[in-house]
Design a protein that fits this description.
Layout lengths: L3 H6 L26 H8 L18 H34 L3 H10 L5 H7 L5 H9 L1 H11 L5 E4 L8 H9 L3 E3 H4 L7 E6 L6 H12 L9 E6 L14 E4 L6 H11 L16 E4 L12 H26 L3 H8 L28 H9 L14 E5 L18 E5 L7
Parallel strand pairs: 1-4, 1-5, 2-3, 3-4, 5-6
Antiparallel strand pairs: 7-8
Helix pairs in contact: 3-6, 6-7
């Protein structure tokens, strides 16, 4: 639960709606005697494969009552925020300048550049100002979706608070409706579908995805958006996706790559013309406008990229020495360049990489004479060169003895050692 509160605030912060509903009074698990881990299991999506990890609470117990109160408090905040935006939208309608006018200016005048629109445009709707103040991320995502040429994938680690449920409120004011509630296409409107653990019926989850993947929806005119949580990070195959929005960083880049892989798959864009078979990937993080102090988003991203760099260094080495490296290099090198190892390259043998073995004679001598022992001691002595012979046999009865030839020896007169 590393920096959980500031991590949530990087996505969204409730505006000062009232004394009861604002960013500082946002329901926290400890106020309801619920742990952060239990709250995470309640709020974040969980796939049915993770059923064992779900929070199990029996009805009538104190824990059940605390959990129910916590969920009710969160729902009250979400509804309060929706009502707050409704009042701002009514005010904009009366002034005849709504958030859809903001989108038109963003698209036509600033050519889809959100940063330029946000910093340079003077006239903005009241609804935009509130949305931007509460979540620059979600506002940016919504504006980018409005200029997408086709279906869009939006991913977040959070489902209820600071996650997809809040983002659905944003989408409502941009004219999108929940296709899974209506269960049919509405004339003149564009819908969105969801795939997360908050939808308990697996058939319902996949029904929305099937409608999203239909060839007649290849331009996103029926269903523009699919909202996905960690429950959909694996095993899904989406078609004709033109934009992927990753709402916040995650501890492992593998999770992000898996999510991007839901949209970028083999033959997934075969329904589209060749010049439209591309996907724009948007990754969002919150940063401070002043000062160099990092946000939690930046900390998490830094950790994830550090781990990914280490993993990629091993993967690159494996790719370079793989027996099929040359066969796959045209495809693999679309993302990065590397050199396949080949034995017939003379440059590899221009000079020795290193000796095959090392003649550590000195070390062998130390092993032989015992000087490698911790108790051994080496001292310098002064010796003299002499000529001598070796006695090869014991004296016979006649007193004869065999000797070797005369040779040179070193003699230490102090103790008589030869």
């Amino acid at each position: 639960m590393y920096k959980s509160y500031t991590r949530q605030a990087c996505n969204f912060v409730f505006p000062p709606i009232s004394q009861r509903i604002n960013g500082e009074t946002r329901p926290r698990p400890n106020k309801f005697r619920v742990s952060e881990r239990e709250a995470t299991k309640m709020v974040e999506a969980r796939d049915k494969k993770e059923e064992k990890g779900k929070l199990k609470v029996e009805k009538g117990t104190d824990k059940f009552m605390n959990v129910s109160k916590y969920i009710q408090a969160m729902e009250a905040f979400v509804k309060g925020f929706d009502g707050y935006l409704t009042e701002a939208d009514k005010k904009d309608t009366a002034q005849k300048y709504t958030i859809l006018d903001d989108v038109r200016v963003f698209r036509d005048k600033y050519k889809g550049n959100f940063m330029d629109f946000d910093t340079k445009e003077k006239k903005k709707s009241n609804l935009y100002k509130i949305m931007r103040e509460c979540s620059g991320k979600m506002t940016n995502i919504a504006f980018n979706i409005m200029i997408s040429p086709g279906p869009v994938l939006v991913y977040s680690n959070y489902v209820l608070m600071e996650g997809l449920e809040i983002f659905k409120i944003y989408l409502k004011y941009f004219g999108f409706y929940n296709y899974m509630v209506q269960k049919r296409a509405l004339p003149g409107k564009i819908g969105y579908v969801e795939f997360h653990g908050g939808i308990k019926d697996l058939e319902e989850r996949y029904r929305g995805m099937k409608e999203y993947n239909k060839p007649e929806n290849k331009t996103g005119d029926i269903i523009r958006i699919i909202l996905i949580s960690p429950a959909g990070s694996e095993g899904l195959s989406l078609r004709n996706v033109r934009q992927v929005h990753i709402m916040e960083p995650y501890w492992n880049e593998v999770r992000i790559n898996q999510m991007i892989g839901r949209a970028v798959r083999q033959c997934s864009h075969s329904d589209l013309p060749l010049d439209e078979r591309n996907v724009n990937i948007y990754r969002y993080k919150s940063v401070r406008s002043k000062g160099d102090k990092w946000t939690t988003d930046q900390y998490i991203e830094d950790v994830a990229r550090s781990k990914d760099g280490l993993i990629q260094s091993f993967l690159d080495a494996i790719k370079e020495v793989a027996i099929d490296c040359t066969l796959n290099k045209n495809h693999n090198m679309l993302l990065q360049e590397y050199k396949c190892f080949q034995f017939d390259e003379p440059s590899l043998f221009d000079k020795y990489v290193g000796p095959a073995y090392k003649e550590d004679i000195y070390d062998d001598m130390k092993m032989d004479n015992g000087s490698n022992s911790n108790r051994s001691m080496t001292i310098k002595i002064k010796v003299m060169k002499i000529k001598a012979v070796k006695q090869l046999s014991k004296p016979t009865e006649e007193g004869k003895v065999k000797y070797s030839k005369v040779e040179d020896y070193w003699y230490y007169p102090k103790n008589g050692t030869v």
